[in-house]
Amino acid sequence: MNIRRIDSGFDRWDDLLALILSSFAYMNCRIDPPSSAIALTPSSLATKAQAEIAFLALEGEMLVGCIFLRPETDCLYIGKLAIRPDAQGQGIGRRLLEVAEETARSLKLSTLRLETRIELVENHATFAHWGFAKTAENSHAGFARTTSIEMRKMLPA
Fold this sequence. Notes:
- The protein has 157 residues and is an alpha+beta fold.
- It is built from 4 helices and 7 strands, in the order E-H-H-E-E-E-H-E-H-E-E.
- The protein has a 7-stranded mixed beta sheet with strand order 1-2-3-4-5-7-6, sandwiched between helices.
- Helix 1 crosses helix 2 (42-51).
- The chain starts with a strand and ends with a strand.
C-alpha cells in the first residue's frame, strides 16, 4: 500500500467521490441527519482538498482509502476517513491515522480530533481501540438530541 498526499496534479475526483460514498453507504438509513458525504461532488472534493490536507491510500492504481485533515487552533481535525468496503480490516485506516499523527506533529499540534455519529457505536469502539476518548456530545443544527460525539487522541511527546 502506498500513501500519498493529494496535490494539484490529482485528477481522479470521480474515483475519490465513489470511494467516499461506498465507504459511507452503510450509514444510510442509520444516521439522522444524513452524512454530509452525500452532498459532495467531484468539484467540492477538489475544493476541500485545496483547503485541507488530504491523503490517499492506493493499492497499485486503485484508491482504497483517504483522509482529510484540517488544522485547528489546538488540534488536527480528522474528516472523511474512508476505506473501500472490500479493503476494510487490512490496516489501511490505522495507517492513515499514523499519517494524521505525523502531520499533527509537523504542525506542532499535540491532539487529533474527530466526530462520529451517535448511532455508529462500532465506530466509537474502533476509535477507542486506536487511542481516542470521547470528549463531548454534539447536536446538529435543528436537533434537540445528541447526533454526534467528539473524540480526541493526545499524541505522545
